[in-house]
Amino acid sequence: MKYTWLNLLRKITLICIICLLVFSTTSCTNNQTTSPEIEITQTPSPTDNSTVNELPPAVKSAVLSDATKRVSKPVASLRITQVEKQNWGDSCLGLAEADQLCAQVIVPGWKVVVTDGQRELVYRTDEKGKQVKLEDLQT
Question: Is the full-model pTM beyond 0.85?
Answer without folding.
Answer: no
